[in-house]
Amino acid sequence: MIDPTYSAADRLSAQAKRHSAHGEHEEAVRLQREAVALCREIYDQHLRVPGQETAIEDGERHEAARKLADHYGRLGGVYRRAGQLESALDSYIRGTELEQDWQLDDSYNRTNAIILTLLVDPGRMPVLIGEIEQAAELVRSQVDRTRRDQWWAWPTWACSVCSTGASVTRCGPTTTSPAPGRDAATTSRL
Questions:
Q1: What structural domains and CATH numbers belong to the chain?
Q2: Coil, strand or helix: which one is 186?
Q3: How far apart are CA 174 and CA 63, in angstroms?
Q4: 3-state secondary structure 57-112
Q5: How many Cβ atoms are within 10 Å of 146's Cβ, its own excluded?
Q6: % pLDDT > 70, the chain
Q7: How far apart are CA 110 and CA 75, in angstroms?
């Protein structure tokens, strides 16, 4: 069952995105922080309930973690557009922790945390190479499975690989058939 609080959080996020697009950063941050708080409340409730061990309840906890990670990522984007880079990085790191702790099939927060760290302090590149390589492997496994039809996953993977100094030798689905919505000529250029 979908918690109605998620719908409220998604509405707040949509409003935050509109305010952010119009340069109304304070209001955008306020709204997105409120969305995170709603998701955090659901997440905390799922963690506190003793004896929940059924597959459905475990799935609900997993979904609560996924939604909270997603909203932390959105908050990071709002902060970034507002020029509040340290707060953006903190939000992406919190989302990354959830992605890793719950083994979520997402790398949005992780890749944004890496990129933002490099934008704030390019001198950290040598320290981040291992993290970038791990992120590239994670994104590659995602595009081979669940994210193959998400166009933004492919450039995320390619940028991760290239930032380590490696070259991208193959980009695109691992099968020889075209991705949905692409003809064979388009796929061969990927």
A1: 1-120 (1.25.40.10), 124-172 (no CATH)
A2: helix
A3: 29
A4: HHHHHHHHHHHHHHHHHHHHHHHHHCCCHHHHHHHHHHHHHHHHHCCCCCCHHHHH
A5: 12
A6: 81
A7: 14
